[in-house]
Amino acid sequence: MQIDITFDPTNLGMKWNFIGNPYPSAIDFVAFQLANSAIIDGAAYFWSQATPPSEDAPGNSKLNLSQNDYAVFTIGTGGVAGGGPDTPNGYIASGQGFFIPAINRGTATFTNAIRMADNTSNNKFFKQSRSKSLNAPNPLENKLWVNLTSDNGVFQQILVGYVDGATNGNDGLSYDAPKVLQPNFAAALYSHIENDNTKYVIQGKDPQTLSPNEVITLGFINTMSSPALYTFSIDHLQGAFLSSHNIYLKDHALNTLHNLSESGYSFTSAVGAFNNRFELVFQDKALFTAQNHLKNNMLHIMQLNNQQVQFKTAENLNIKTIVIFDVLGRPLYHLKGHSHSETYRLSHLKQTVYIIKTTLSNGAIITKKMVKN
After folding, report:
1. Which CATH number does the domain 297-371 belong to among 2.60.40.10, 2.60.40.730, 3.40.50.12280, 3.40.109.10?
2. DSSP assignment of 196-261, as one string?
3. Model pTM?
4. Which InterPro entries match (predicted)?
C-alpha cells in the first residue's frame, strides 16, 4: 500500500502529513520510517486530548481543541506522553492516525514486513483513553521522563534520553523533537540545547556525557495570572546510572535543592518564561549544602531603622547588583552597588518573606531569603 507524501521546502509548515495505520494489526513505526527514510523523518506526533474544547483555541469551530496535547515518539530516543500519562512506544495501533514530518516529496510504502503479529502491540490507540506502554526498557540506555502538573489541570511531560547515536546538539527529529506550543496554552515544560532557542519535548543526549556532574536545564513558561500550584515529578526512568543515583531539582530562584527521587517538588510562579530557574542535577546534597553555606556566608543582610536594609560582603569584594523577588518569583527591586557594603531604603516591602539575589564583583551569585520585620 502506498500513500503520497507532500513536502514544500520553501514552507516548513507544509512538511507535516497526516496518515494512519491501514492494517488490522499494529505496525512498527521504526521499521516503517527506516523503510521510507528518504521521504519521512524519524518522529511521529499523536494527538491525545486532555484539554477541553475552548473558544480561545485556534480553529474554524466555535469550540476548538487544543493543539498542545500531542504525544510524540522518536526512533532514536523514545516516546513522551501528551495530554495524559500514557507514553507511545513505537507500535501504532490499527486505524491510529498520526502526523509525520516529510523531508522530501514522494510515496510512503506500507508492507507486511512492518506489521506486528503479537497480541500486545495493538492495544494503544491515542485519543482519550489508552493503556500503558508495554515496550521493555533497554537497561543500557538511561532515560528520564519528567512531569509538570498543577492543581488546575496542567499536564506536561518531557523525555531526556542518553542514547547511542545522539549528541548534545540538535540531532534532528530522530532524537530531538520540538514541543508543539499553540496560542493560549496555560503552562509549558521543555528542555534546552545549548545555543538553540528551540523548546524540546524529547531530547537525545550523548551517553558518554552522563556523569554525576551532568546538568539538565529545564525551561518553564507560566501564562496564568491566577494562582496555581505547580509540581515537578519523575514519571519513570530506566538505565543503570539513573537507577543508582538520586535526581535533584535545583530551584535557583529559591536557592533550593529537592530530591525528586523521593518526592515531587511544588512551587508557584509569576507569569513569564523561565529558562534558567530550574535544573536537574545528580550532585550530592551535602556537597551542595556546603557550597551554599560558603557562598551565603559571603553576604550579610541587616535590617536597620527607617526601613533601611544593609547588604555587606567581604572587604575585598564589591556588590554589583541586588534583585529582590517576592515568593512568586516577581522582581520588586533592581538595585546597583559599587562597594562591599550598600544600604538602601526599601519602604515598599511588607512584613513577609523575600528572595534576595546578589551578584558580586568576583562573579559569585548569592541567593538568600530575607524575612522583612
Report:
1. 2.60.40.730
2. EEEEEEEEEE-GGG-STT-EEEEEEEE---S---EEEEEEEEESHHHHHS--EEEETTTTEEEETT
3. 0.72
4. Secre_tail
